[in-house]
Design goal:
Elements lengths: L14 H5 L11 E7 L4 H17 L3 E7 L2 H11 L7 E5 L5 H5 L7 H5 L14 E2 L2 E2 L2 E5 L2 E6 H7 L7 H13 L3 E3 L7 H15 L1 H8 L8 H15 L12 H9 L3 E7 L2 H7 L7 E4 L10 E3 L2 E5 L7 H11 L2 H7 L20 H12 L4 E3 L2 H4 L2 H16 L4 H15 L2
Parallel strand pairs: 1-2, 1-3, 8-9, 11-13
Antiparallel strand pairs: 3-12, 4-5, 6-12, 7-9, 7-10
Helix pairs in contact: 8-9, 8-10, 8-17, 17-18
Length: 419
């Protein structure tokens, strides 16, 4: 593990001094830099303001104008903002979520920055910023998904963390025989089923196949997709999931794990805070990477937030320098610390707070996600396909015998949506 750093949001401004070593030529910028950010909640806003302050300290002759907009409002405003007189840097998301703006020619191609070595340490998620072989932005934070489990119950039952899917099934059988469910899940709002499909498909067929499906290049009725559902059904048929999960939100379903009625939860790292707040100690919780099924490098879900340069920006050199700054190892360490964003830096040379789950997630994504980093079902698939798809995934979990009808509907939707 890299060195552990911890700081307050206010200290982020001091990063101008720490990060200056990144820019070996010491070139001082001047002119303007206009940034529009959707980091509107208190902690992210403080981080964004600190980033601007740190960059300003490095370049005192630079006139920086920061505009912070509401995160939800930005989702509907961004297209207009990228049109006439756009800012020089904007916040957005990776993978398919940036696709419409790339295809419309609204995001700048910055492939040369990756090729020239100006953005080191970002290999784990470079693919998520790549369309048609070109890169269109940089990442600044992400968080891991994986299997969080009751370590005390595993110890009670004599179980070890599984590495293969066969071991996962064997563990699940012991858990079911003990009168518990293997997995908590709440599919009332659909998206959690998307996480299960992501992992089952990436492990069954590999990351590249999963992304081909997301891009509409593979039929949902393809035998390889059916194999994904067949593997998933093994867990459903053995009673691996809590009953009536379609009635629960993910937070409500978490109670089954907290009460010991279920032992595991496939979820993002944000669930750890809820587990701790409910009274589980770190001695009762642990984490493992989703087990292997096929012989493929492991792909992982790690939703990633990004910065982009609009194609119509007036100050692209200054914008490129800012992107280089926010992806540097020291800066990413600071902005993702526990009292800042509380997530994971993407630069492989960054450090993380002394939190066992952040440390495990950082190590996994930096060194053991060789397949690639996916953004999650509802980010990787187009919005309409994601909506139809997640409805089908929830239905499959409740009525697995409906698979043929579900796949036929999803294939019909694919043919309509990806025209």
């Amino acid at each position: 593990m890299h060195s552990i750093l911890k700081t307050s949001c206010a200290a982020v401004a001091a990063l101008g001094m720490a990060a200056s070593a990144v820019f070996a030529d010491g070139h001082q910028l001047s002119g303007d830099l206009k940034i529009t950010s959707d980091m509107s909640n208190p902690a992210p806003r403080a981080v964004m303001e600190g980033l601007v302050a740190g960059f300003q300290e490095m370049h005192p002759e630079l006139n920086i104008e920061l505009t912070v907009v509401d995160r939800e409002a930005w989702k509907t405003q961004i297209r207009n903002a990228l049109g006439a007189n756009p800012p020089d840097v904007v916040n957005w998301y990776a993978a398919n979520r940036m696709g419409p703006y790339v295809e419309a020619g609204l995001f700048e191609d910055i492939s040369d920055m990756y090729a020239d070595g100006d953005l080191p340490g970002l290999d784990a998620v470079q693919g998520a910023l790549t369309l048609d072989g070109k890169q269109y932005g940089v990442p600044y934070t992400y968080y891991q998904w994986g299997v969080y489990y009751r370590e005390d119950i595993f110890n009670e039952l004599g179980l070890s963390e599984p590495v293969t899917f066969d071991e996962e099934i064997a563990n699940c059988q012991v858990i079911v025989d003990s009168g518990r469910a293997c997995y908590a899940i709440g599919t009332k709002f659909l998206w959690t089923a998307g996480g299960w499909f992501d992992y089952m498909n990436m492990r069954t067929n590999g990351f590249d196949f999963h992304m081909q499906l997301a891009r509409g290049e593979v039929e949902w009725t393809d035998p390889r997709v059916r194999e994904t559902f067949a593997n998933w059904r093994k867990l459903i048929d053995m009673g691996g999931f809590i009953a009536d999960h379609q009635s629960y939100s993910w937070q409500e379903a978490l109670n089954f794990m907290i009460d010991g009625e279920a032992t595991s939860y496939l979820m993002g790292n944000f669930a750890v805070a809820a587990m701790r707040e409910a009274g589980l100690t770190d001695a009762q919780i642990d984490f493992y990477q989703f087990p292997l099924i096929g012989d493929y490098p492991q792909g992982e879900d790690a939703p990633t937030d990004t910065f982009h340069i609009p194609s119509g920006a007036e100050n692209k050199d200054n914008a490129r320098a800012f992107l280089q700054y926010v992806t540097s190892a020291n800066v990413q360490t600071e902005i993702n610390s526990g009292d800042a964003l509380g997530q994971l830096p993407i630069n492989a040379e960054s450090g993380v707070d002394a939190d066992e789950f952040l440390e495990q997630g950082f190590a996994m994504l930096s060194t053991n996600a060789q397949g690639g980093v996916a953004q999650f079902f509802d980010r990787d698939f187009p919005a309409e396909m994601a909506s139809v798809g997640m409805e089908g995934l929830q239905e499959f979990m409740v009525f697995p015998d409906n698979l043929d009808d579900i796949l036929a509907r999803l294939e019909e939707a694919r043919q309509r949506i990806y025209q």
